[in-house]
Amino acid sequence: MDKSRLKQNIWRILLAVLCVCLLSVPVLMLFLWAFGYALLFRYPTAFLCAMSVLAAAALVAVYIQKPIFSKAETVFAVFLPTAALFCGLKAAKSDSGVFAWLFAGILLVCCAVLLIKILPRALWKFLAAGFEMLLCGFFLLDMFFTVVFLGITCNTVVQTVPSPQNTYVAEVIDSNQGALGGDTFVEVRKTASANILFFTVQSRSVRVYEGEWGEFETMETVWVDENTLLVNNETVYLDHFVLL
User: Do residues 135 and 82 make contact, with C-beta atoms less than 8 angstroms apart?
Assistant: First the structure.
């Protein structure tokens, strides 16, 4: 592909990369969840920043080049705002920083405007605009409740205890809920994990113990063997839980 043709199709390349990146996240999360694994954001703010820049670049390229869109491009673009909302909320909640929410908002707006620009008819553009207003309203409402209400909850891993053969790890978690008090949790997961770009793939954690807030300060968590955990003299058999 020569430079002139590449320049003419830069919008298509940017749009394709954006669609693949955003749509693959919920698909991979669902696929991994079915097999007992979790796809977690390793660098949520960096991911949102990269996606925001990509979406903004695709939007600028579309406005400059004014291309004619194929049916396939239109179909994929329909899912962009919803995928942007999903990825934005997932990533922002795992970071909870101001910049994470800012980039999530920019990403959602850029994808919403892209969809309106790509849709061929005025009626579809109008319906899309109404739907996107609902998405933006949901985003703002979710951000408000997360920052104002859920923001007081802070879960901190205060102790990690690997099993004798390092197959599993038990995590003691202090759940501080401010004036509401809190809880102490013990969760177990497999130790195997893999870091891929902005993400970490690891086994889903299973909660095996719930105690009073502050209990972790005197809690004794000891592995009896590879499948048995002793928490405050309470025996926890991993065979009773699903640990894939």
Answer: yes
Residue 154 to residue 84: CA distance in whole angstroms:
26
Token readout for 204 is: 């889903």
Residue 10 CB contacts under 8 Å (≥ 6 apart), including other chains: 61, 65
Rounded mean pLDDT, 147-151: 56
What tokens were used for 193? Answer: 């994990």
Q: Which two tokens stand for residue 154?
A: 């802070």
Q: What is the pLDDT confidence band of residue 52, given thresholds at 50, 70 and 90?
A: very high
**Long-range pairs, 145-148, Cβ under 8 A, ≥24:** 146/92, 146/93, 146/96, 147/96, 147/101
pTM exceeding the 0.85 threshold for the entire prediction = no
Q: Are 58 and 18 in contact (CB under 8 A)?
A: yes
b/e per residue, 171-194, with b = 16+ CB within 10 A?
bbbbbeeeeeebbbbbbbbbeeee
- Report pLDDT digits (tens) over 59-101: 898 888 877 777 777 878 888 888 888 888 888 877 767 888 8
Residue 122: per-residue pLDDT: 65
C-alpha to C-alpha distance for 159 and 175, rounded to whole angstroms: 13
- The mean pLDDT of the chain is 80
Q: Checking phi first, is residue 201 left (phi over 0); if not, alpha (psi -120 to 50) or beta?
A: beta
Gap between the Cα atoms of 35 and 200, Å rounded: 15
